[in-house]
Amino acid sequence: MSASFVESLPEPAGALTASPHTHLRQLVVTVNEAEVIITGRVPTYYLKQMAQEAVRPSLGCRRLRNHVQVCSN
Question: Which residues, other chains included, contact 48 with Cβ-Cβ below 8 Å and sequence gap of 6+?
Fold first, then answer.
C-alpha cells in the first residue's frame, strides 16, 4: 500500500483578491505548473512589491514573474 502526498498550497490569485489594497485586487495572476505570472498596473513600486510578496507563499516550486507596471497616472 502506498500513501500519496498532495501538496496543499493556497491559490496565488487568492492572495491578491483578498488584499485590502484595491490596486492589488485588480491585478491578473496566470498560473501554470512551472510559473506564476502577475500582470497589470499599480501606481507605486511599493504596491508592485506587495503583490509579489503576497503571492510568494503560494509558489511552491514554481517561478514567480512579476510583470506589473508602475504607472503614476
Answer: 42, 66, 68, 70
